[in-house]
Design a protein that fits this description.
This protein is α/β, with parallel strands linked by helices and about 240 residues long. The protein has two domains: about 5-125, Alpha-Beta Complex (Quinone Oxidoreductase, Chain A, domain 1), CATH 3.90.180.10; about 130-240, 3-Layer(aba) Sandwich (Rossmann fold). Helix content is about 25%, strand content about 30%. The longest helix has 14 residues, at about 130-140. It is elongated, with a radius of gyration of 21 Å. The model has no long low-confidence stretch (mean pLDDT about 95). Bound molecules: NADP nicotinamide-adenine-dinucleotide phosphate. NADP nicotinamide-adenine-dinucleotide phosphate binds near residues 156 and 198.
């Protein structure tokens, strides 16, 4: 029987939150790699906030995904057929591919699988989310020991790592997250000093109580009302890393 590829097509542009009708699961013949390309069986799909942006017809850093096209995505997978000189079957690769079981690509990067770490670590803490947190904190925000850092979306992919880096650097780190269970996770699992539940209270008042010396670094992951509250308490000369 001919092997088929299952793929998610962008059927319509979302209004507000993405809903079931915006995407459609379709089957298509397995793609064939040409010279310089490889066929990848996707194992992980990284679903990040930027995917929602790609679905929209707005000015952005890449062209929006066209209606009727397969949804663009960052995936990690295993090479099962290669006509690329630098890759062979069995290699683990990561890169801009699509929401589908099999992708053809010529630009994926080799994943340096090592240290007996599970593969998913290279899709999270050692992948884009980890790098965004690491370089955002160490190259852009550059806090000093003793600084107060606020991390929004502190239970999220980037925020959970950024917060822990802040603690390693000797800072007071206050998270902002939505809901009691996420705030518990942020404090008990990630070790942050405090967490403000922006869905359960008054963000500005709760941040003021959690940051008695003001805020030296805003590790901003969401913008909007949360960022406005942080900026109201920001100290002169503070640093901000704003997630793009
Ligand atoms: N992941 C990456 O590789 C990467 C790379 C470059 C830039 N970024 C940027 O970094 C930021 C965080 O990305 P992420 O991958 O960590 O995202 P994520 O894990 O999906 O976390 C996003 C979180 O943002 C919070 N949120 C959503 N809407 C909100 C709103 N209206 N007000 C307040 N909070 C809201 C939600 O947390 P609560 O449930 O706690 O509300 C949500 O879980 C994004 O701006 C993203 O574009 C990410």
């Amino acid at each position: 029987m001919k092997k088929m590829n299952r793929r998610w097509i962008l059927r319509q542009r979302p209004v507000g939150d993405v809903c079931d009708d915006d995407l459609q699961l379709v089957e298509a013949p397995l793609p064939q790699p040409e010279d310089g390309e490889m066929l990848v069986r996707n194992i992980y799909l990284m679903v990040a906030p930027t995917n929602r942006v790609w679905m929209s017809q707005i000015d952005q850093y890449m062209a929006p995904v066209a209606l009727g096209e397969v949804m663009r995505g960052v995936t990690m997978g295993v090479v099962i057929e290669s006509r690329h000189p630098d890759f062979k079957p069995g290699d683990i690769v990561e890169g801009g591919m699509a929401w589908e079981e099999y992708s053809v690509t010529r630009t994926a990067r080799r994943v340096p699988v090592a240290y007996d770490l599970p593969l998913h670590a290279f899709a999270s803490v050692l992948g884009n989310s980890g790098m965004t947190a690491y370089f955002g904190m160490l190259d852009i925000a550059r806090p000093k020991a003793g600084d107060t850092i606020v991390v929004s979306a502190a239970a999220g992919g980037v925020g959970s790592i950024a917060g822990q880096i802040g603690k390693i650097l000797g800072c007071r780190v206050v998270g902002v997250a939505g809901g009691e269970s996420k705030c518990r996770l942020v404090k008990e699992e990630y070790g942050l000093d405090a967490c403000v539940d922006y869905k359960g209270g008054n963000v500005l008042a709760d941040l003021r109580a959690a940051c008695p010396d003001g805020i030296d670094v805003d590790f901003e992951n969401v913008g909007g009302d949360t960022m406005d509250a942080v900026l109201a308490l920001i100290n002169p000369g503070a640093a901000s890393r704003f997630a793009g």
